[in-house]
Amino acid sequence: MVIPLEQKINELNQRLKKMKDEKRYFYLKSIDGASGARVTIDGREMIMFASYNYLGLITHPKIKKAAIDAIEEYGTGAAGVRLLAGTTKIHEKLEAKIAKFKGAEDAVTYSSGYVTNLAAITTLCQRGDLVIIDKLDHASIIDGCLLSGADHRSYLHNDMESLERILVNSGKYINKLIIFDAVYSMDGDVANLPEISRLAKKYGAKIMADEAHSIGVLGKTGHGIEEHFGLKGAVDIHMGTLSKTVPSIGGYLAGDKDLINYLKHNSRPFIFSASLPPVAAATAIACLEVIEDEPERITNLQKNIKQFKNGLSSMGYNIMNSTTCIVPILIGEEEDTLKLCKMVNDEGIFICPILFPAIPKGTNRLRAHVQATHTSEDIDKALDIFERAGKKLGLI
Ligand SMILES: Cc1ncc(COP(=O)(O)O)c(C=O)c1O
Fold first, then answer.
1. Which tens digit of pLDDT belongs to each residue from 285-339?
2. In terms of pTM, does the model score above 0.85?
3. How many CA atoms, within 13 angstroms, populate the side-chain half-sphere of residue 91?
4. Which residues belong to the active site?
5. How far, in Å, from the CA of 248 to the mean position of ligand 1?
6. How far is the centre of ligand 1, averaged over its atoms, from the C-alpha of 241 (Å)?
7. Half-sphere exposure of residue 154, counting CA atoms within 13 Å on the CB side?
8. How do residues 3-46 score in pLDDT, each as one tens digit?
9. Which residues contact 289 (CB under 8 A, 6 or more apart)?
10. Residue 140 Cα: closest atom of ligand 1
11. Domain residue spans in the chain?
12. For domain 15-48+295-392, is the CATH number 3.90.226.10?
């Protein structure tokens, strides 16, 4: 049945109005000033547990200075697509830095992480090819599959038997690409790279890892999933964003020189969309340098993750299989999730509910993001608030 557009718009707006009237609308909150471990909203200080600023780099003095210097040198925009008049020295420097950071031969950047996934999948996979994705892969990977025209199948989340079942029946395809999130953005667990790599070799598939949430997070020095597992060279195509731990904007693909050159001359988002502002490129370069120069941030993040998770688990909260700074607090029912969210927000915790259909039915949750710059007191205070709220609602 086709629903008139006006009806769909009305229904959504009524639902949102009801949430606002009940003071249970937690989205589009406007932050005064920079986002950090603590933020000010409507004059009230809150502890931030909803941002991707995992290493706390947004206000880093060296990175801010690099951004200011880049504006002085390059102005505000590149005024063109990369292929024609939109490439500057700073774009080339960023791509060389990313390639080195990821241990790849070369890299190419795009205007967002979302667009990067569309670019990779639509350029590398077409009608007659097969893309295999994890059921919990990011929306941009699913959209890329749909846009590419390639056949696509999804395996059960991080379930290697399910992946192999698809691969066993993939004999008729010449080009097969397995794509997975290195760290899953809703569950906070890590992809099983050793097994994916083994299966890819066995069945002649290539693999692409989306490292949106693993750069600066996974591996002793924050270089990502290959470092985490000690499997250098296991990933064929490294994808990542410059919008999370690296607090700029944009996305990248890194891999073999010839592959990157192919993308630079064939991917439509590179050819038909304007280049990153030079300031975004300069910011990203400085961030990657800081990640390498200040490993203590990663150590601190790990310490904070441990404190937060141990605290929640010992109270009886279910934090699923998270092993990273993304910590789901599984509640189940939407009503309970919204009640808990309101209670902890009222007490000064900035956190968002993640509701169906963004995640599977019945797995409504709050999603907490731990930062390296949270203090031990921030985490203790948050745990105390979660404990009191959870007990009051009978959730723990
Ligand atoms: C796993 C994953 N991939 C890609 C993206 C898109 O990145 P961006 O926000 O830079 O467009 C996101 C964003 O949340 C993500 O979580």
1. 999 999 999 999 999 999 999 999 999 999 999 999 999 999 999 999 999 999 9
2. yes
3. 25
4. 185, 213, 244
5. 13
6. 6
7. 14
8. 999 999 999 999 999 999 998 999 999 999 999 999 999 899 99
9. 62, 97
10. 4
11. 15-48+295-392, 61-293
12. no
